Amino acid sequence: MPQTVKGVIARAAGEPAELARIVIPDPGPSDVIVDIQACGVCHTDLAYRDGGINDEFPFLLGHEAAGRVAQVGDAVTHVKVGDFVVLNWRAVCGQCRACRKGVPEYCFDTSNASAAMTLEDGTELTPALGIGAFAERTIVHEMQCTKVSEEAAPEVAGLLGCGVMAGIGAAVNTGAVQRGESVAVIGLGGVGCAAIAGAVLAGATTVIGIDIQKDKLQAASELGATHTIDSKDLSREQIVEKVQELTGGFGADVVIDAVGIPSTYETAFYARDLAGRVVLVGVPRPEVELTLPLLDVFGRGGALKSSWYGDCLPERDFPYLTDLHLQGRLPLERFVTGTTDLAGVEDALNSLHEGPVLRTVVRIDR
């Protein structure tokens, strides 16, 4: 039987997120219903609310979540009732051309639940990133569920579902940071600070955090940055010079842009060493354009990469990173800077404009 639960929706661009009653359908053969225990408040949810993703309103917000499997479809084999899982929005299909080429991190045909959640009047909801986890329960495809250690706190484990994974993966997977290399990260929100942690995890010996806010620079230092640059009153050229000063005069081996605007990308481009790598993990707005001298692109060599979801494979990366956290080698708990409940989601979304918050996590108690 369909069931009705509380969830947070966005009805139209510019309108506040609101708590509503939503209907969870019976699971299809490969669907799973998950009791959500915790869900991080991500900038992507803010973009959904404000119409920055698409106009498929109303949205069921939330996607960075952990919980327990409550019900499974008849054909589900990947998880069972009671499993503790982190939800992911890259459910690798194994069949598309990317998967067949051996690059499943670019899977072009990820799976979602077969039936839509609705409002009580029957209006279909679009779940954020195919998940919709600002809710007491949600329905997803079985491959959107990744089992991790039962010992992990839901508030921490859920962060791997999006922003923290994006940042760590930008360093470890996309940037392929090697032992002894230098890394600079521009923009020290949740994703940028996660990139700092990822660079440290990969063995970088010079890790530079760059931001305009002192509290974010402090957060980066606490996560392992060896140097920080307060860029508030600096030109691009001055930032580049400071990065070069900290890297023997050359520039960083890897520069990660966790902002995604032309000025930060240009800084990243010029702050790297010759043949260095630039990684764009900050998501640009659709209308933004970039202009670079083509001769500089040619002459500096190296690689210009985009990092989608940290180029992660959830089944590989989520359990591994959870285990590192439990061993005390990855301080994921430091990303949780506040908690709230479902009724507090709108305020938490608005707080993302204020800057200092890494992650507010919505706890869902029953």
UniProtKB/TrEMBL annotation:
Q: Name one Pfam family in it.
A: ADH_N
Could you tell me the keywords of this UniProt record? Metal-binding, Oxidoreductase, Zinc
Q: Which GO terms describe its molecular function?
A: mycothiol-dependent formaldehyde dehydrogenase activity
**Signal sequence segment:** none
InterPro entries per the record? ADH-like_C (IPR013149), ADH-like_N (IPR013154), ADH_Zn_CS (IPR002328), GroES-like_sf (IPR011032), MycoS_dep_FDH (IPR017816), NAD(P)-bd_dom_sf (IPR036291)
Alcohol dehydrogenase-like N-terminal domain sequence ranges: 28-149
Cofactor(s) annotated in UniProt: Zn(2+)
Q: Where is the Alcohol dehydrogenase-like C-terminal domain?
A: 190-324
Q: Which family does the entry's similarity section mention?
A: Belongs to the zinc-containing alcohol dehydrogenase family.
**By what name is this protein known?**
S-(Hydroxymethyl)mycothiol dehydrogenase
What lineage does the source organism belong to? Bacteria, Bacillati, Actinomycetota, Actinomycetes, Micrococcales
